[in-house]
Amino acid sequence: MSSKLLKSATAVGVFVGLGAVTATSARADDLTLCWAAWDPANALVELSKDFEAKSGHKMKFEFVPWPNFADRMLNELNSGGKLCDLMIGDSQWIGGAAENGQYIKLNDFFDKEGIKMSDFIPATVTGYSEWPKNTPNYWALPAFGDVVGWTYRKDWFARPELQGEFKSKYGRELAVPKTFAELKDIAEFFQGRDIDGTKVYGAAIYSERGSEGITMGAMDVLYSYGFSYDNPDKPYELEGFVNSPDAVAGLEFYKALYDCCTPPGSSDAYMSENIDAYKSGQVALQMNFAFIWPGIHADAKVGGDKSGYFANPAGPGGKQFAQLGGQGISVVAASEKQAAALEYIKWFAQPEIQAKWWSLGGYSALRAVVEDPGFATSQPYAQTFLDSMAIVKDFWAEPSYASLLQASQKRFHDYVVAGQGTSKEALDGLVKDWTDVFEDEGKY
Amino acid sequence: MSDTPIDRIAQATPPAVARRITGLSDRSIAWLFVAPSIVLLLAVNIFPLIWTIRLSFTNFRVNRPNAEIEFIGLQNYRRILTDPDIWLTMQATAHFLIWTIVLQVLLGFSLAYLINKKFRGNDLWTTLIVLPMMLSPAVVGNFWTFLYQPQIGLFNYAVSFFTGADPSSFSMIANVNLAPWAIIIVDTWMWTPFVMLICLAGLRSIPDSIYEAAECDRASKWRQFWTITIPLVLPFLMLAVLFRGIENFKMFDLVVQLTGGGPGSVTELTSINLKREAFEKWRTGYASAYAVILFVTVFGLASIYVKALNKVKQR
Predict the structure, then answer these.
(1) If pLDDT is split at 50, 70 and 90, which confidence band does A10 have?
(2) What would be the CATH architecture of the domain defined by A148-323+400-440?
(3) Measured between alpha carbons, how far is B305 from B246 in angstroms, rounded to an integer?
(4) Every domain of chain A and the residues it spans
(5) Average pLDDT for residues B296-310, to the nearest whole number?
(6) Residue B151 and residue A264: Cβ atoms within 8 Å?
(7) Is the domain of B291 the same as that of B237?
(8) CB of A105 less than 8 A from some CB of B
(9) Is B117 exposed, middle or buried (0-12, 13-18, 19+ CB in 10 A)?
(10) pTM for the full model?
């Protein structure tokens, strides 16, 4: 009898135990988050430990270096792959991902969880979350605010002998430039100069051909010179806007800056090349996305007080814009773990998590974080980040953005780096390429 | 009755199976053996080819699963063949192809001719010379970007040593005129040993007796070279040209690592351009038409060349 009882009790115990294990595994999912391989991704790994502890879900990460990020991840989305449950995709992907059903729409989820888009920086909501733009259709939660800005060698600028020489040559102080023309003067001043026995150069700017580099760089100047993607009153009308005289002058300026003031062999430079050029003490100025600033500040050779940060200067007409970077976090429609992925987004949207995100080096887009009175002084680059985020513009986010981007990459690189044709010809060619793309899309 | 292991296995085979096997003709058994290979070939080669040809007549984009696929006839082909940018990439490819083959044949044959002579350390030199072709093209591409770096690159310092020019005054991969030569130099460095090995096989296949007979006839070394060596090595040399031609027509990895197709588009070879159309712009139908055109070009040229090769071998 006791033996029977023991067997029954054991069977019940095993049953209950198995049930518990099964219940746990049904609740706890392994979530895979896909993003680019860069410093903020490492910060996110650290941040996500809190989510793992609180939710019981285990996080896995798939990080791909920037030059291959779009290729790899768009392949994944287009093939309906199940590798990624959560995607921190580039802002330009939003149109295609929304229209092709690759991301799930988050409106109902936001409403249910009380997540309000008005709590985030407006530019990041438009840039990272909305499709169609400027409509309340949300496909992502702003995850990482980013923008192109400048880093400069504050210690070199502070040298009395250089200040004196600069003032006698240009009639003004060697200081943070207010216009792109002033920026070029500074870059020319440093180009080929001997500093502490090392030959240094003016500026590291974007010139990369393969992915998006030269477009992200040239657009910073073009926007501030008066470039417009299309007629504000008649969408997709490009003639006279993309190739306006102001835009032509802007592209000429970018080429002049490339020709006069970059280190030798800078024909294919993007984020990492510019970081290398700056950290190795080769250049006085560096164009790059804001994500690099925490790393620059912490660098033993050029960090701390040796470096300063400033937003894109103004163009000749006083306009001042900066290229938007950054990404939103989305739930991949092909994922079988959407409920757990949404849990992650809910957790990530919390103000205390966003505050921790900023403290770890991630640029939060939550207004409660960036509008906190202590934010602007929390880091030496925090104010520059705020100034830059206030003047952002973004590239096309159409479903056909990849074709539009490849066209600008080719036209800009052919003119700026290879020196083929004129600025006007490059932009006229771009109008033709983009018109062809939009014609294929049935926009006319 | 013999009692070999085969007979024992045959006897042990159940009658039903034996009947089934013995009921098959030799031809059927042959088909049975080759069928898996044929099915595999159809699945991984022929079907994708037919599918690509079909897609080339459509506006299909792989990133638009919800869009309607339209049959657009020859529109993709017309757009490709009238696109000046495509012709520029064709020119860049032809420039790369012709110069790499010329240089590799000249250098490869010369090295093979030298290595074919008996001297001390012959094996060691052969091993050292073939080392570059054993490396991964991606590694070679990365490695040469450092060699070509204007400020720290050894290549620039070597040029500076011989010419007196400032090493940082020129950039092999950033200059429009130098970049096409930069990729030719690297490909030649990497693949000349391959041509050398094929030529060496050709040189070593020539019987000594032919040269001995020529010596008896008092033929000069120069005459022996032109009337014995070159004609007998020519089929090998042509084979090397065929291999290198096909390889370089589809060159991708090495050039992407070195220049990414730049500066501008001066080193954008057809394969790089095709990849951009297919996997960056996601114009699947257009890229399929592009791939078909390239396939027909390579297949056509290779067929003509193989016929010429066979004629040379028959002589």
Answers:
(1) very low
(2) 3-Layer(aba) Sandwich (3.40)
(3) 11
(4) 27-146+326-393, 148-323+400-440
(5) 91
(6) yes
(7) yes
(8) no
(9) exposed
(10) 0.85
